[in-house]
Specification:
The complex is a heterodimer of chains A (about 260) and B (about 270). By secondary structure, chain A is α/β, with parallel strands linked by helices. Chain A has helices at about 5-10, 55-60, 85-90, 110-120, 125-135, 150-165, 180-195, 210-215, 230-240, 250-264, and strands at about 20-25, 30-40, 45-50, 70-75, 80, 95, 170-175, 200-205, 215-220, 225-230. Chain A folds into two domains: about 10-90 and about 170-265, P-loop containing nucleotide triphosphate hydrolases (Rossmann fold); about 100-165, no CATH class. Chain B folds into two domains: about 5-65; about 75-260. Chain B has helices at about 5-15, 20-35, 35-45, 45-65, 75-110, 115-120, 125-130, 140-145, 150-175, 180-200, 205-225, 240-250, 255-260. The chains are: A alpha/beta (about 260), B mainly alpha (about 270).
Chain lengths: ~260, ~270
């Protein structure tokens, strides 16, 4: 029996899961991401920014929906450009877009199973994976209800379920807490922490408190550029009593935006 | 395989008296695999044991009848996908078939005019193909585009769903009007292939619209205006359509990688 080398049994984790350098991405004719440098490893990363900051465009680029027009982007060790075959990267992706579209006549289970099928999960593994995903987002009683009969918050949770069904290495959630009630938002924070243990989770949201409560890393964008990346404590440290906001984190957020605008 | 003796089986049937744990375990493992010994054991069951088994069987039967019936087996994901596709394409395909039907009626009413069935055949599948892979029509398009299944294989499956309806409709229309079946079906397939090849670069919807516009401007409208069928649809052009269809079918797989790249307009 030959000795097994450590490299053969080591997990195939990449040193960083997302690496963008001077990334430029268009949204229509507008350059929504303009020279962004970003490196993400495993953990939960929150993206904050005002409307029009480029958060959704960034999420769409990282999910391989749109092609960057400049700079470089590496996802899970693969260079994402006009020549790359994206199948391997997409098998390890989970994505919930801001404008979440679904098939109204599908049940929750059917919709999540359909997405699992599209993600080329092994057919025998799909039923259990679907049930697990539905249970994790708290939709077990509604698993066989048609999507069109669900409330907005439940539909959003079904969207999260389809994003996590394949246990993705890179999970991108754009405004995942829209429509969730306060209790559900607390449950969602727990889910985020759980997911971030093994993968890179990027959450884009307007809610500063959600980011501070659940994320180990905070990213602030404005006008397509990165203004700040650091821990929630670093964000809080940037704010002062004179800055706008109801919480230390919001004051830190306001302070950084004010500083950016005054330097512009 | 060593079978337990008749005496051992009788003791086992009587509750295992005089048999230690190892012997009991050994007998049970053997009974799992040996139908003959199970039959022998059943014959040795005491009246009390038989009565107990009967009561348990009755009780289980009652419990099963009282419990909810098994849930309906859910359709696999592929079948769900086909159901959505059918619902989405139905109106467009119905319109296509209706237009072809009108073409048949016009050809019958005005035989002096160039055949509308022949003129419409190349573009007949294009509305369905455009709709089947359209980010505006498919509400989950943005989700689907981020999955590894998004690519030529999916586009082909959806295109096939369109052709399954359009080709028979064209066949019936062609037979009804007495037009050349080769000139009815080959241009349809050629334009479908061209839509996919071009669609890999500029997007399937744009390709379908572009080809339909070009065909209408270059062939359909001039033929109707001149009341004379274009040379590209004359009987002598059949060989050319065969070559075009075969060529496009051959290069369509080469477009597969483009559908998986971000250069695709899809």
């Amino acid at each position: 029996m030959r000795a097994v080398r450590a490299a053969e049994t080591a997990p195939t984790l990449h040193p960083w899961l997302v690496h963008a350098k001077e990334l430029r991405v268009r949204a229509g004719r507008h350059l929504a991401v303009d020279g962004l440098d970003l490196t993400l490893t495993a953990g939960v990363h929150g993206v904050l920014g005002p409307n029009g900051a480029g958060k959704t465009t960034l999420m769409r680029a990282l999910s391989t929906v749109v092609k960057p027009v400049g700079g470089s982007l590496t996802l899970l060790g693969a260079q994402v450009d006009g020549r790359a075959d994206l199948r391997e990267v997409r098998r390890e992706l989970g994505y919930l877009p801001q404008q979440f579209g679904f098939y109204p006549r599908f049940t929750v289970r059917e919709f999540v199973a359909y997405m699992a099928w599209l993600k080329e999960m092994p057919k025998t593994a799909i039923p259990d994976a679907v049930q697990r995903a539905i249970d994790r987002v708290g939709l077990t009683p509604k698993a066989d209800a048609k999507m069109k009969t669900l409330s907005g918050g439940m539909q959003r949770r079904a969207g999260i379920a389809q994003a996590i069904v394949n246990d993705p290495e890179l999970l991108l959630l754009d405004e995942p807490t829209v429509g969730l009630d306060p209790e559900q938002r607390l449950d969602f924070r727990d889910l985020l922490r759980d997911l971030g243990a093994d993968s890179c989770v990027l959450v884009s949201t307007h809610l500063v408190e959600d980011v501070v409560a659940a994320c180990t890393d905070v990213i602030l964008m404005n006008e397509g550029r990165l203004l700040f990346q650091g821990t929630p404590d670093d964000l809080i440290a940037r704010g002062g009593q004179g800055d706008a906001g109801d919480s230390p984190a919001e004051r830190g957020y306001s302070a950084l935006l004010r500083q950016h605008r005054s330097n512009a | 395989m060593t079978h337990p003796s008749t005496t051992i089986l009788a003791r086992y049937a009587d509750g295992g008296h005089g048999l230690d744990d190892a012997a009991l375990w050994s007998i049970e493992v053997h009974l799992d695999a040996c139908a003959n010994c199970r039959a022998s054991l059943a014959a040795k069951a005491t009246p009390a044991t038989t009565d107990l088994l009967d009561r348990v069987a009755v009780s289980l039967g009652q419990a099963i009848e009282a419990s909810p019936s098994p849930t309906r087996q859910r359709a696999p994901a592929a079948a769900v996908h086909r159901r959505w596709l059918a619902w989405t394409l139905l109106p467009w395909l119905a319109v296509t078939v209706a237009v072809l039907g009108c073409g048949v009626l016009l050809d019958a009413a005005e035989p002096s005019l160039p055949s509308l069935v022949l003129l419409l055949a190349p573009v007949a599948p294009l509305p369905g193909v455009a709709v089947a892979w359209s980010r505006r029509i498919d509400p989950a398009w943005e989700l689907i585009a981020t999955t590894p299944a998004a690519g030529l294989a999916m586009v082909l499956r959806r295109t096939l769903a369109v052709l399954v309806v359009v080709l028979p409709a064209l066949l019936v229309a062609g037979v009804s009007t007495g037009t050349s079946l080769a000139l009815t079906l080959l241009p349809c397939l050629a334009f479908t292939g061209a839509t996919l090849v071009l669609g890999a670069l500029i997007g399937v919807r744009r390709a379908a619209i572009g080809l339909a516009v070009v065909w209408s401007a270059a062939v359909l409208l001039p033929s109707v205006a001149a009341q004379s069928l274009s040379p590209v649809l004359q009987p002598g052009s059949t060989a050319d359509w065969v070559v075009a269809t075969a060529g496009l079918a051959a290069i369509t797989p080469l477009a597969a990688t483009h559908f998986r790249r971000l250069t695709s307009g899809n």
